[in-house]
Design the sequence.
């Protein structure tokens, strides 16, 4: 069979309009960015909507200041450390508890974390304590160390996410988690090396660390069956069909709300 | 694997209209075939359903199903990301206390903006909706190839 002339003409016209309007969405360099920013904003939104009695959610610029009304919200186009404080640096979402000033979190896209090995690990959507973000930003920029409060990988491809994809996420978590503390007298989950600010408490085992927090892989497609056994043992959520099934993103949102609501236990 | 004429036609249109990378990806996907999960016989009968040992294989896509599969591919790659991005902009606006907030991607070091994901009004996914409706109709807009006697 062949496309009719009408079909060809209509397809060409709509593709031209689409390219003019959404060129960035089809550029190979932008692959996956729409999914990342959507997940990031959905997590911010669920706190904004559901936990607003206790939590305030705001958009922030790269110097930590409130995003001015009418300004663009800039996010990193590629993996990056936390940049030195500057209003033109990529921004983030700040979650602040309304009564407990020490409960403040930064929700960031494409942030690189430093593993115990010295390797850097990009996480599509991650959450860190704001104290750590501020210390890094105000001291020339750099990488947070330790296990994020939340870490979500975003895969916008169809098909099946193989077992190796979950293994990669787990390997990253193993390299990040501070079962061995950086300084023997510390007990922490996240730290930075400019001012040696640290946050949270050490857990005794890997699985105990991973149980606290939201860890997951969201996929436009599905997951290979065996991958769920590995993922669930280490508290890594699998979120298949993320675009098409509203219940799936709600499950991720619920996990994140639990994490935020229990942050004082971390 | 043989690719149907209508899918080849779509691929050539994509390439000519500036979607060359996507055209190449679609050609590869169709050539490789559909990904399916095949179970390997369990050694341990007590294994849970979630423990099913599987391998991922590619199988040929029936020619009559190729155009619909190609439309699904384009929906995943064009329609759904743009809708998601538009929703993200609307959420950003709610948080900022406005109707919508433009989200941009900037090089973290150089601060140059990447090509925008949207040049439409903030939060507008109407073109993605239009494309989606067209992709749904397209498989019905085919005709047998005209064969001319020499």
Sequence:
């Amino acid at each position: 069979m062949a496309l009719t002339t009408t079909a060809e003409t209509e397809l060409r016209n709509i593709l031209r309009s689409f390219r003019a309007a959404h060129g960035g969405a089809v550029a190979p360099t932008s692959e996956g960015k729409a999914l990342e920013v959507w997940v990031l904003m959905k997590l911010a939104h669920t706190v904004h909507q559901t936990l607003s009695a206790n939590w305030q959610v705001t958009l922030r610029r790269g110097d930590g200041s409130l995003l001015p009304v009418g300004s663009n919200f800039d996010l990193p186009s590629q993996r990056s450390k936390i940049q030195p404080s500057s209003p033109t640096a990529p921004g983030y979402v700040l979650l602040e508890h309304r009564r407990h000033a020490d409960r403040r979190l930064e929700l960031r896209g494409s942030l690189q974390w430093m593993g115990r090995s010295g390797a850097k690990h990009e996480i599509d959507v991650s959450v860190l304590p704001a104290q750590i973000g501020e210390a890094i930003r105000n001291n020339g920029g750099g990488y947070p160390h330790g296990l994020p409060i939340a870490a979500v990988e975003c895969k916008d491809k169809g098909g099946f996410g193989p077992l190796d994809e979950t293994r990669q996420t787990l390997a990253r978590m193993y390299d990040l988690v501070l079962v061995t503390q950086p300084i023997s007298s510390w007990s922490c989950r996240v730290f930075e090396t400019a001012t040696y600010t640290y946050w949270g408490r050490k857990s005794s085992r890997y699985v105990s660390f991973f149980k606290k927090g939201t860890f997951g892989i969201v996929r436009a497609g599905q997951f290979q069956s065996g991958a769920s056994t590995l993922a669930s043992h280490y508290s890594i959520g699998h979120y298949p069909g993320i675009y098409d099934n509203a219940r799936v993103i709600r499950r991720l949102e619920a996990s994140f709300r639990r994490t935020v609501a229990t942050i004082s236990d971390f | 694997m043989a690719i149907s004429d209508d899918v080849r036609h779509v691929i050539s249109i994509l390439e000519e209209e500036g979607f060359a990378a996507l055209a190449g990806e679609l050609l590869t996907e169709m050539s490789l075939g559909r990904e399916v999960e095949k179970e390997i016989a369990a050694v341990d009968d007590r294994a849970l359903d979630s423990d099913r040992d599987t391998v991922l294989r590619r199988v040929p896509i029936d020619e009559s199903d190729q155009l619909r599969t190609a439309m699904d591919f384009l929906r995943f790659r064009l329609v759904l990301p743009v809708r998601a991005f538009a929703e993200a902009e609307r959420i950003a606006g709610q948080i900022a206390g406005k109707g919508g907030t433009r989200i941009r991607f900037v090089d973290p070091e150089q601060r140059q903006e990447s090509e925008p994901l949207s040049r439409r009004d903030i939060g507008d996914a109407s073109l993605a909706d239009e494309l989606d409706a067209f992709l749904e109709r397209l498989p019905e807009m085919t005709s047998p190839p005209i064969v001319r006697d020499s």
About this structure: Chain A touches chain B through 73 residues (CB under 8 Å). The longest strand of chain A covers residues 104-114. The domain at 32-265 of chain A is CATH 3.40.1350.10 (Trna Endonuclease; Chain: A, domain 1). The mean pLDDT of chain A is 95.
